[in-house]
Amino acid sequence: MKKYLFIVLIGLNFITAKAQNSAYSLSLEQAITLAQDSSYASVNARREMTRALKKKWETTATGLPQISGSVSYNNNIKQPVTLIPGEITGGAPGSFTPVVFGTEQNATAQATLEQLIFDGSYLVGLQAAKTFLDFSKNAYEKTLIEVEKSTVNAYGSALMSDALVLVFDNNYNTLKKSYEELQVVYENGLTELEALEQLEITLLEVKGYLDNAKRSQSLAYNLLRATLGLPLAAELELTDDLNALVLRAAQELDPDISMDLQKQIDVRIAENFSEQRRLEWQLERSRALPSFSAFMNYSTQAFSNDFTFTDNSQQWFQSSVVGLRMQVPIFSSGFRSARSSQAKIAWDQAKTEFVQTKQATQIAFENSLSDFNLAKDNYNNASRSVNLAERVAQKNQIKFDQGIASSFDLYQAQAQYYRAQQNYYTSLLALLNAKTALETFINPPAL
């Protein structure tokens, strides 16, 4: 318990500290740590875990001594009248005399101590509270996993947007220079207008790529800020290189990897859920058992026709009682039996869902491994393709400058190179995300 409270305190202190700083220089690992500490999902998950700790104590406290107290004051503005036989006061036989009993005002103070001795539902409740706490811990761990995935995706997208802006800016500047040089050649009558127009089309197309990349860059950084739980105005500097991250992703994983099914978070959550349903069934069955409790009451009362209860001379009368209480459910017309049957069916459903979750997790792992291998192959193909497309574009540029290739041939080679560049960076991000998704099966974070 102390460990989780420490996590909560550290997270809250980190949130306070980060609010005083609006500039961040982050590697991917630092971004993941920051997101797991301060993202909106992580903060609320820690709060939920804290709430589970309080819920556990709430359940425990119901079986501990309970003390309550009360103070009351009554002022009988019109006191009730009682008729007594007239003979008592010297009246005629058969007559009645009105009499007022008691004083106009009275005050009472009392305290009651209650202690539960045995209650089957309380014992089950203690087990259920512990299971709920385990569920909250597992839910928090699942949140950390999802936050890590989101952070890797957002960080990688921001790096990819930076790379594409740089690439298209270089392409645009290079094409612009070529266009200006070709324009001089055209003005001297050494080339056709079609060649100049074809190059202008390519230049405009690359300008569109560049503008779109800049817009995507702004959106990618805002998404990263939101993922990290930072203000949208916070300054971010990403220190990792996308190519280096992907290179590590392609090399770090063992080709003969395997998964421990019992450690998977979805399996553990499904197991928690099944245990909760079992305890709910036991709870309904326990309602047929008797419950025992003890109590002790102490009270003091004072009576007066005037408000003299704060005077030292006021006389107070004490009373006290100690007792045991037993409640026995006898007959419910099948109500308890029906609720118990429903709880048993819900438990059977949860056990089936647990088996289904284990199968689904195994399939998800195999799909994730397949996705990683596919992403790795796509990255290798895209890397090879961009190198080939660059060489083809360079050769066509030389041929065009020498008058051997047409402007249309040059346009096709350049367009192919630009597409290959986009596919290359897309494959980088896909491989990074696939590696992260696969690692969550192999190395789930430990709390």
Please give a structural write-up.
With 447 residues, the chain is α+β, with helices and mostly antiparallel strands. The chain folds into 2 domains: 2-63 and 119-289 and 332-442, Outer membrane efflux proteins (OEP); 66-117 and 291-328, Outer membrane efflux proteins (OEP). It has 9 helices and 8 strands. Mean pLDDT is 86; it is low at 1-10 and 12-20.
Number of strands: 8
**In the CATH classification, which architecture of the largest domain applies?**
Up-down Bundle
Strand content: 5-15%
Rounded average pLDDT: 86
Distance between the termini: 12 Å
CATH superfamily of the largest domain: Outer membrane efflux proteins (OEP)
Strand order of the largest sheet: 2-5-7-8
Q: Which fold does the CATH topology of the largest domain refer to?
A: Outer membrane efflux proteins (OEP)
Tertiary shape: elongated
* Largest β sheet strand count, sense and barrel closure: 4 strands, antiparallel
Q: Give unreliable regions as ranges.
A: 1-10, 12-20
The CATH class name of the largest domain reads: Mainly Alpha
Structural Rg: 39 Å
Helix/strand/pairing category: alpha+beta
